[in-house]
Amino acid sequence: MSHQEHVLGIDIGTGSARAGIFTQDGVMLAEAKTPIAMHRPAEHHVEQSSTNIWRAVCSATRRATEAAGVAAESVTRMSVSATCSLVLLDKAYRPLALSEGDEPWDIIVWMDHRATIEAAECTATGSKVLANLGGAMSPEMQMPKLKWLKRHRPELYEQIGYAGDLGDWLGFACTGSFERSVCMLACKWTFDPRPGHGWDHDFLDRIDMADVIERARLPETALPVGVDLGPLTEAAAADLGLTTGCHFSVGMIDAYAGALGTLGRSLTNAPETRLAVIGGTSTCHIGAQPSRCEVPGVWGPYPGALCDGFVANEGGQSITGALLDHLVAMFAAGSAFGDDVHGELSKVLLERLESGDPAPHTHVCPDFIGNRSPLADPEIRGAITGLTLDTPQESFIKVYWAAATALVYGTRAIIERLNAHGYAIDTLHLSGGHGRSALLRKLYADGTGCRVVLSEAPEPVLLGAAVAALGAATKGDVLGVAKGLSPGEHVLEPDPAMGAMHATRYQAFKALYAGRLE
């Protein structure tokens, strides 16, 4: 057993909870993952259980600690990155179930779009809070979801004693603290962390949510990422297999942890040219500069959401890896590629690409559940065009190729929007599952014309959570910590020979949106 001090990073994703044990200098000793359950009671409704997630976090933590061969008392700091799902607790701080079942389904998952109408009503106010949201409210944010509950489930809304982002809830579950992260409050709750701003009570009055501050136990201030939230309670320490000597640092949304783990070492060097791309189930695009940039259709600007001294903008695509998974499930021919469908298709398509466009007439609009950025339109739906009477396997290969390129062209459209409003992006810092795909790595470089920087960190999102955990020792200077811990990286340059093909495909991609991307 090692008796040095260690750090625990927790990442709660859409489908699993992961735990990583790190040394003080950012080396990951071990990782463990536990699946988490998902419930879909109706169309556009997606729910999870905080009870199930707590079990998953505890299981992953215990197994990672054991695998790392470290003593429980050596883990002295922890923090979290998590999806921006909404946890609901009653007035006794027990799970407040939206749906009954084997688990108390008390979480509205980030991708849940039940509140599309309520989001449109928020946008229709024309409130100044929209200047921090790219001009439009998304149904993936928390105020529309809570407004939906108040309208459609008033008896449930009346019982709320706590409502919080998943990462803030984990801090509460571990320490009992009701404080919130500036990352969560600024990005998903319409809280403006600039001095003299805070909550816009006029906006809350106009959407009939004046009571939400008290009901959800929302604070009047937000804590910086990485500052100390407090020690683990005895109950939390026992469940996690740790000790009350472990302190919890204020965490962040998972995409921002990925950005910190990959972009942190470079953020002070021409930040306007850099974009963190965190690609998994969905894709988030995070840029940050010292100055404020308002970008239509791109969330933010969010001061301090990534780190002090920088103002972040966040573009996004609601389903990316999830779309590729969906296509594999939708086409029977997907079963012909074995257990690693994506890996096998990557090999096939890279080989075909050497002879030109593998499917020049097949195109996909990838926004099956709406466009987050740059159009901010949740009503857009997906489309597949250019199909012929190929064999089922050949049709599947072509559609998969068209979808993979479309995901990258969605990123290209976001880059163009950012570059028209204060950025000059030519470098992508890629992490997440997309960074492990040889096909997607090449497409991101060739399809956007940007160089792609790939971190040598095995798990950049977990590293970002570990950086937040270590931030307490520097009073929240997570950027300074990140610069000191960031591992090496290598660069993939775009292939000029692919430029003409992607230019042609990108024009066809934009045509699917009837001129709205021009």
Description:
By secondary structure, this protein is α+β, with helices and mostly antiparallel strands. It has 17 helices and 21 strands. Strands 1, 2, 3, 6, 10, 11 and 12 form a seven-stranded mixed β-sheet that branches. A seven-stranded mixed β-sheet has the order 15-16-14-13-19-20-21, sandwiched between helices. Strand 2 (16-23) and strand 3 form a beta hairpin. Helix 11 runs antiparallel to helix 13 (392-419). The longest helix has 28 residues, at 392-419. The protein starts with 5 loop residues before the first strand and ends in a 7-residue tail after the last helix.
DSSP summary, beta strand count: 21
Distance between the termini: 60 Å
Helix percent reads 25-40%
Rg from Cα: 22 Å
Assembly of the depicted chains = single chain
Shape: globular
Which regions have little confidence, pLDDT < 50, spanning 5+ residues? none
Strand content: 15-25%
Main sheet characteristics: 7 strands, mixed
> Helical segment tally?
17
Class from helix and strand fractions: alpha+beta
Instruction: Give the integer mean of the pLDDT values.
Output: 95
Short descriptors:
globular, seven-stranded mixed beta sheet, alpha+beta, 21 strands, 518 residues
Describe the secondary-structure layout.
Blueprint: E1 6-12, E2 16-23, E3 28-35, E4 39-42, E5 45-48, H1 50-68, E6 75-82, E7 86-90, E8 107-108, H2 116-124, H3 142-152, H4 154-157, E9 160-165, H5 166-175, H6 182-188, H7 201-206, H8 212-215, E10 228-231, H9 234-240, E11 247-249, E12 252-253, H10 254-263, E13 274-279, E14 283-289, E15 299-303, E16 311-317, H11 321-330, H12 341-353, E17 363-365, E18 383-385, H13 392-419, E19 427-431, H14 438-448, E20 451-455, H15 460-470, H16 478-485, E21 489-492, H17 499-511
Helix pairs in contact: 2-3, 10-15, 11-13, 13-14, 15-16
